[in-house]
Amino acid sequence: MQTAQSLPDVRDATLLNPSDNVAIALRDLKAGDAVKLSIGSSTVVIRLLNDIPFGHKFAVRDIPMCGLVVKYGHVIGRAKRDIKAGEHVHVHNVESLTSVHSACKG
User: Fold this and answer.
1) Is residue 27 part of a domain?
2) How do residues 83-100 score in pLDDT, each as one tens digit?
3) 59, 85 contact by CB (below 8 A)
């Protein structure tokens, strides 16, 4: 297992706010890559489960189905299904809070 200290200090991704549960890829990233991120005063390593295109989001921790997706310190949507840490976060697994066809209503 790689530790944060053994990875190169390259900016592969950024976390915009310490309360965010998604990070943004600063370049095209590949499934299996270990991405080092600073979250508050901690440094964590996230192993990517999918290819993440430049500018797209990936989960920095597990997000349960119907859990809130947070970016910029603000809720930007809700998980349509369980999302694992390191997984691509996009329209296939996130919906608007106002989605008419949500499985999360009730």
Assistant:
1) yes
2) 999 999 999 999 998 888
3) yes
Q: Indicate the SS3 state at residue 6.
A: helix
In a domain, 54, yes or no: yes
88: amino acid identity, one letter = H
The token pair that represents 89 in the structure block: 């976060």
Residue written as token pair 């840490």: 85
Find how far residue 106's CA is from the centre of its chain. 26
| Nearest Cα residue to 56 out of 31, 88, 20, 87 | 88
How far does the chain reach from its first CA to its final CA, in angstroms? 42
CA dist 47 and 67 (Å) reads 21
C-alpha–C-alpha distance, residues 89 and 13, integer Å? 14
- CATH number, domain containing residue 28: 2.30.130.110
The neighbour count for residue 33, using CB atoms within 10 Å, is 17
Q: Please tell me whether the overall predicted TM-score, pTM, comes out greater than 0.90 for this model.
A: no
CA quadruple 69, 85, 82, 41: dihedral, nearest 10: -40
